[in-house]
Amino acid sequence: MVVSDLIAGAHLVRGTGRTEADLDLFFKWLGDRTCRGIRLAVMHMWSRSAGRRSRRQRPQAGILYDKFHILRHWEKSMMVRKSEYPA
Q: CA-CA distance, 37 to 24, in Å (whole number)?
């Protein structure tokens, strides 16, 4: 898991854990006041993402999915559409 401050351009955490418990430890280290200041979380679209499940730590923050996963889903949907309308 990598947690970065996109404004400062710095990695805050670079670890091997990818679980909700790992991310909860990070939020505990960060503290309640700082967590309340988080306005946006960028993450991938994995349904079991630790970031999505630990949302209780920062309920005010919006979620922005990363471009790679958005485009991957779009590409799959375009392949389906193309197969529905043979040339």
A: 16
